[in-house]
Structure formats: structure tokens, C-alpha cells
RNA sequence: GGCGCCGUAGCCAAGUGGCUAAGGCAGCGGAUUGCAAAUCCGCCAUCGUGGGUUCAACUCCCACCGGCGCCUCCA
């Protein structure tokens, strides 16, 4: 029974889709004016996993992530660079898509663009004006917050709390809490024709228009970063619910934000003044951390695989903030080696690749256990872990717990290899291989739900491992084997040590010596 | 000031009103190994502090201390 934390109610609620068997998810995506950084990528990873789990649970899921390609920041950046806005947007969108690809986020069904939704946006705005929730002022159109009594129900803020004036700017708004649905164009700015003259959409209206277009007036889950809760999501609700007279989204899910780890206060933040007495050195650390954390994601990918970052993101509950740090990523990498090594063992034992293992994609697909579990320690433990996995995921998508189960499964399987001595071909039989395979299927199944281990890790050394290398290694291993046979361990160790210096690791296994690059 | 979050082992991180408080990284001991590596087994926390509620709290409530986010067209 799936339970989801709903920001609206500030509590976990039993998940019940609007339409039986179907789930629509809308997640606020990026404004494509600069290369994305790690913070932009956590949401997609999380909601990709959310979709996978919902699909696994039997739902037909549609996931929408918008791309904002018209915006003040885009205009400013394109002017600064002297390139057309559309070109800038196209470049940055491509960057974003590459990042998604590296992270294995491939479950997004629609990427609506603002520029491609213009008609709907204008029509949406028109309706709000007609219904009296919005007003025109010299080519701008504003939503009148006072007309919507429920305003603030998501972020739990009263309207009166937001009356602060935006720096004394001369405003055409009736109230400072009102926000723009449509902005008139200044000369030279990209613009679209509208009933109010040439202009462009305000920031929030696109999401209302896009979500309705692709998911309907009321859909199931609206997601996004915690920072968007106010005012962005609050405004979306106001627009959509005033326009349609019905609930916009049943569940609002907000993910915690990625933070650049730093020993001192963040530079440039409100806390800075308090931390200012700190010496120069510590401030320097803060700056470095900050720049590391906000470096373009594509740069980060040169240091860490997308899969490592995905694993890292999913190892914490999505509502918690995560501190980004290189050490943490390195630790995650170490942990993942356990899995990669297991996949090697699997290949040695079965001759097959883990990545090709067929596993159920839905929890109700039956696999052929073909065994009486009772009394079989291995199968009983395996079943217990399976139950754990779903319990974790059912509890507000606890991917961290789920990853814990993955580790336990590997340990269980490694133990099985040890106990049955599966590394020795003579000990393999139909019985133990079948049991082993059952465990592997579950590992494959659950890791796929999290979107992990779907492809072999990129062999950094692929370029260097040509046929010649392979043959030379064979030769060295052969020579070393002969030395070992003759108890000439000095020579054997010399070979292994010298190879280690070059970066080649030898591991002696029951079935023979394996080599790999480190 | 307003809204909210967090404080679990050296570090990261799940979780629960009563049963052995997951898992990972690091460390230690053991099995295995010619020695290693890998793997397995074992060890390593009483849950920020002080109160309260309760037969029973780390888990609920209050206060305090400490860390943090948002309130600024930031995912």
C-alpha cells in the first residue's frame, strides 16, 4: 500500500490515483539559460525513480517535465552573449538532455516547451481575465491574488505575509502579491502576439497550461524542488484552480535541495555576515566548495559516472537535503564496486551477463520460484528482503532503504556462492544454480526499479585493452601460474607486484587468475 | 520576524511506542588464501540536552541548545 507525503497536508497519505490505474506526474524542469548543475539534476533522478516504482506497482504512468525556454533570465543571457534566445535555449536544452541521459533518466514522456505552448498559455490567461481572476494593465496581465481565498494553502503562508513591496519598483499591480501572467515586451525583446499586445508569458502560467494540456485539469502528482513551493507552485495552484474550479494536483511532492558542502557559512547568503569574522582561509574553503557544487554538471561527469551520482542521490530520502561532496561520491563509488564485482562473479559462474538478466518489470508478475521455501535459509532470507524492498518503496519512495536491500541481496548471494562453492564448476548443479538465479533476478528487478545497473560501467580502459594486451596478460598469468606450481612465490609475487605498479590487479580465484585495471 | 526541516556509531544514512535500532564507507578480529585481493563471519550506536505523557519513548508533547532551508522570477 503506497503512501506519499503530500505537501498540501504536510503528512503521508495513502496513494489513490485520480483515474483507476493511471498516474500523471508533472515536474517543474529547468529554465534553459545556462548549463545545468547538480542541483538541477536531482529532481529528474528522483521522479524517474518515482515513476519506475509506480509503473512497477502496476500503474500506467505519464511523466511530464517542462523546459522553460522563454524567460527574463534567458533574454538577459542571450543579450549578454549576443546570440538569439532560441539558439541559447536549444544549446542549453541539449546540455540538459545529455545530463539526463548520463544519469539514466529516460522515463520522461513529454518535455513541453514554453514556446510550443504559447496558444494554450494565451488562452489560459484569457480565461482568467474573463472569469475576473486577472486584470490587464498597460499590456501586462496580472493574477489578482485577493480573488483567491485559498491562496497560500500549499506553503501555508497568509497573503498578508507577502505584501512586502519588491524594492519600491513602480508597479502596475493592484497589490504587490499579484503576479504576472503576461508581460508586455520591451523593444528588442522576443515577443508573441496576444490580445494584450506583443509580450511573453509570466513565469508560472506555463506550468498551468502545460500540465492541463498533457495531463488534464486534475492530475495526480506535481513535483519539484522545495524552493519552488513558494511562490511558483502556490501561483500555479491559484491559476489552475481559479481557471478550472477544481483541484489542480492531488499530491504535491517536493524534493530537498542539493547543497554544496562547506565547513563555514555559505558565501553570499544571509548568514554570511554572522560568519564574517571567520578568517580568510575558511572563507576560501567555502568558496571552493561552492564553486565545486555549482560547476556545470557536464564537468562533474568527467569525474564521476552518471550512475554513481544517481546512486548517491537515491541513497538518501528525497525530501532530505543532500550535501554534495567529492568524498561522499568516492565512498559511493567504493560501495558500488561490490555490485560490479558481483556481476563479474555472476558471469564467471553462469557465463551470462547480469545486464541481460530478464526480470519482472511489475511486482505482480510471477516468477517461477519452483521451490518450497520453507526451511531453506537462503530462499527464506531472499523472500524477506523482497518484502522489505517493497515496504521501503511503499513508504513515500524510500529509495535509501531500497538501496540497503540491494546491498543485503548481494551479500546473500555472495554468501551463497561461498557456501555452495559456486566458483568451482564442479559444484554447480541445477538445484543451486536455479536458486542462485532466483536471487539474481530479484537483484535485477529491484535495481531496475531504481534505475541502477542497467548498463555495464563505462570501461575507462577500453581504449588500452587491445588484443595484444590480452595476449600478453595471458602469457604473464601463465608464467606466474607455473612459478606458483613450483612454489617459486618470489617470482609469482614479483609479477603481481610489478603489474600492480603499472595499474593491473591480479586476483587468484578457484577458477583461475583474473586480471583487471585499477 | 513568518513558514518549515534536521540533530541516530569516526563519517554517510534507514527506521521504530515495547522484539537483535537497516545498510554503506572507514576500523578491528576471524575464516579463506602460499601470501595477497575479493568474498564470508564477528565486533563497533541506547538514538542533541532537559522535562512531560505512558505500564513502556530513540520513536508522542513541551522547552532549550546546535545545524539548515525558504520567505528575493534558484531544481
In short:
The protein has 518 residues and is an alpha/beta fold. Among the domains are: 3-119 and 204-259, HUPs (Rossmann fold); 329-449, no CATH class; 462-517, no CATH class.
Given this structure, which CATH class of the domain at 3-119 and 204-259 is correct? Alpha Beta
Structural classification: alpha/beta
Spatial gap, N to C terminus: 44 Å
Q: What is the ordering of alpha helices and beta strands? A: EEEHEHHHEEEEHEHEEHHHHEHHHHHHEE
Number of strands: 14
Proportion in β-strands: 5-15%
CA-atom Rg in angstroms: 28 Å
Poorly predicted residue ranges: 163-168, 262-291
Compute the number of helices.
Answer: 16
In this structure, how is the largest beta sheet organized?
A: 4 strands, parallel
Biggest sheet, spatial arrangement of strands: 4-3-9-10
CATH superfamily (homologous) name of the domain at 3-119 and 204-259 = HUPs
Oligomer: single chain
Fraction of residues in helix: 40-55%
Q: Which whole number gives the mean pLDDT?
A: 87
- Shape-level CATH architecture of the domain at 3-119 and 204-259: 3-Layer(aba) Sandwich
